[in-house]
């Protein structure tokens, strides 16, 4: 099983794993892939890069949520370049919390 949670359409060098995601809408977009053989993941990788994988795989489901809790024993999670191991992960969005100042 693969679960990808994001609030923007692409990450990791352009992979569009949650192509309908929008930074400003206040929702996480979730891509849930049921049991799939590892070789199939490699086969479908070009579709993921383009963001059209949902059209080709019947085992992919997309969801939207303001809060996500993932519970599974000894789970590895990749968060912004870091890998964490745990049994429970809780994700919450905080809109408009980061102020960015750019030169005029």
Structure description:
- It is built from one helix and five strands; from the N terminus they run ββαβββ.
- By secondary structure, it is mostly beta strands.
- The protein has a single domain, classed as Tumour Suppressor Smad4, CATH 2.60.200.40.
- Strands 1-2-3 form a three-stranded antiparallel sheet, with no helix packed on it.
- β4 and β5 form a beta hairpin.
- The chain starts with a strand and ends in a 12-residue tail after the last strand.
- The mean pLDDT is 86.
Q: What is the element layout, followed by pairings?
A:
Elements: E1 2-6, E2 28-33, H1 38-50, E3 60-65, E4 67-79, E5 82-92
Antiparallel strand pairs: 1-2, 2-3, 4-5
Q: Which term fits the overall shape?
A: globular
H and E string: EEHEEE
Low-confidence stretches: none
How much helical structure, as a percent, in the residues? 10-25%
**Number of E strands:** 5
Brief summary of the model shown:
The protein is mainly beta and 104 residues long. Helix content is 12%, strand content 39%. The chain has a single domain, classed as Tumour Suppressor Smad4 (Sandwich).
Features:
104 residues; mainly beta; Tumour Suppressor Smad4; 3-stranded antiparallel beta sheet; two-stranded antiparallel sheet; 12% helix; 39% strand; globular
